[in-house]
Design goal:
Helix content: 40-55%
Oligomer: single chain
Radius of gyration: 26 Å
Distance between the termini: 46 Å
Number of strands: 7
Order of helices and strands: HHHHHHHHHHEHHHHEEEEHEEH
Strand content: 5-15%
Number of helices: 16
Shape: globular
Strand order of the largest sheet: 1-4-3
Length: 510
């Protein structure tokens, strides 16, 4: 058997094992959290919570149709979508590992048969590890977007390695363009796939250029710019610009009804004009770059276009919201509400780089009232016509500039006493005279960073990571990881069905 056929057989064997395991352990109906919502929205193509998952809903609708009218089977069929996507994740993980193993063994003095056997065993074992990893398995058996998101992550990495092997061929850029299209599709499921961009950029750099620290740093910098262009430029700012056109062509009103400017044309006119202009600019730029043989510019424009085409699955959200289905979260049927939907405004703001700590004081005006500003507009009926009106009910309070810090982690007053062991009150030493009030606290930057390490890194990242590769105590809330050396099994969890241990536990256990 040739190595290619052996490789194909190994990958498809992993897929089959994964699919059988996931189907046998799959949730028979709706499970907790968002799964019931996704099942209902997939079955009727309704509008789920922001920022939506239109491609997942479309594929879920296709799977639900195979219930053949039996409503008791709809949930099982949508769950099957996650199981199938996760089985493909394991398959592409296997093939990614065989590519890397083949490269690592290329300089070995083993004979070709031993190299092939070692390569396939590596891929098979890695594929099985992927199948049974705690987070992968957990998301593979219910109607959540993470199983399919993992599939897109696995396939783009595999595609990039396929490009790497063909980077000297004349048509090698088609692989890059395919990756761009797949990434555009993945946005219609979950944004997690975009985090592969820096890794893909490093693969490109190492294949095309001699290594240097400066070159690597530049590559990572460019990859962050590309990530920002997709995350903010395509996904959000595109609609922000469209909203600017909408205000010019349609017009807006103040809360009192005063005309704030605009041509007074029907709602949607500005969005339509922007769409035509954008398509024209892209088409023109593609033609000019092609005629002038600007390869890099043309490739970048084609990649941008393909990402946009893949991202166009979001048209389903807009179209279905217009039909006013039973589940129509945020009612994103015009550019204003759609922009709010894409920005996830219903979840509020979380300071990422700069913002207030939990006890920051509001900036006060001359009367002693907190200063505030309107977040934007809303639409309402005025004289029988729908108009965009300034929304003074949705306001944002302004903080004192001296209370704004870099990288604030303890920023939510609701976590002051109500977050169990990770309540802010457990991290701050200088609590002030009133132990129940945060206003007179004096948290230090070190205490803020300690919360970041203990909660956001250790509890919310490393704990999940260790579940997959070391062990998990139970399926209870805040379940810890176990390795048999540092954290031994509590007797309360020994019979818990989610209690599992991997090799390190058995290696060090008594």
């Amino acid at each position: 058997m040739s190595e290619k056929k052996f490789n194909d057989l190994t990958g498809w064997s992993v897929f089959l094992i994964a699919l059988v395991v996931y189907v046998l352990t799959m949730a028979p109906t709706a499970s907790f959290w968002d799964c019931g919502e996704f099942i209902a929205c997939a079955n009727e193509l309704e509008v789920t919570h922001p920022p939506g998952a239109p491609l997942f809903l479309i594929l879920g609708r296709i799977f639900s149709m195979f219930s053949f009218g039996d409503v008791t089977r709809i949930a099982w069929m949508v769950n099957l979508l996650s199981a199938t996507a996760s089985a493909f994740t394991a398959m592409f993980t296997c093939w990614t590992i065989t590519i890397l193993a083949r490269k690592s063994l290329s300089a070995s003095d083993m004979d070709e048969q031993m190299k092939m056997n070692a390569t396939m065993i590596s891929g098979f074992v890695g594929g099985l590890a992927c199948i049974f990893a705690d987070s992968i398995w957990f998301n593979a058996v219910e109607a959540e977007v993470y199983g399919m998101s993992s599939f897109f992550t696995a396939i783009v990495v595999w595609l990039m390695l396929k490009w790497e092997a063909r980077a000297d061929e004349p048509d090698h850029l088609r692989w890059i363009l395919l990756i761009a299209y797949v990434m555009g599709l993945s946005i219609g499921v979950h944004l997690l796939n975009l985090l592969t961009i820096p890794a893909l950029a490093v693969i490109y750099y190492l294949r095309k250029f001699p290594f240097s620290i400066k070159g690597l740093a530049a590559t990572l910098g460019i990859s962050v710019v590309v990530l920002a262009v997709i995350l903010y430029g395509i996904i959000q700012y595109t609609f922000s610009i469209a909203w600017g056109f909408e205000k010019v062509f349609t017009g807006t009103l103040s809360r009192s009804g005063e005309d704030l400017g605009g041509l007074g044309l029907p709602m949607g006119t500005g969005s339509a004009v922007f769409s035509v202009i954008m398509l024209g600019l892209i088409a023109g730029a593609l033609i000019v770059s092609y005629r002038n043989k600007w390869v890099v510019v043309n490739t970048a424009l084609l990649a941008f276009t393909l990402i946009t085409i893949g991202f166009s699955s979001y048209g389903v959200i807009f179209i279905r919201s217009k039909a006013n289905p039973a589940i129509d979260m945020n009612n994103p049927e015009n550019i204003l509400t759609f922009l709010s939907y894409m920005k996830r405004e219903q979840y509020g703001d979380r300071p990422l780089f700069r913002g207030p700590l939990y006890n920051a004081g509001f900036d006060l005006d001359s009367r002693g009232y907190p200063k505030a500003k309107s977040r934007g507009m809303k639409y309402t009926l005025i004289d029988g016509k729908t108009k965009y009106v300034e929304d003074m009910e949705d306001i944002e309070y302004l903080y004192k500039s001296k209370d704004l810090v870099l990288f604030p982690r303890m920023y939510d007053p609701g976590h002051y006493t109500d977050a169990g062991p990770f309540s802010y009150i457990n991290f701050v030493k200088r609590l002030g005279s009133d132990k129940e009030s945060p206003l007179d606290d004096q948290p230090t930057r070190f205490e803020d960073f300690s919360f970041f390490v203990d909660y956001q890194l250790n509890h919310m990242y490393f704990r999940y990571f260790m579940w997959n590769f070391v062990g998990r105590s139970s399926d209870d809330q805040d379940a810890r990881w176990e390795d048999g050396l540092l954290f031994r099994t509590d007797s309360r969890y020994e019979r818990n069905k989610a209690n599992n241990h991997y090799f390190s536990c058995h290696l060090f256990s008594e």
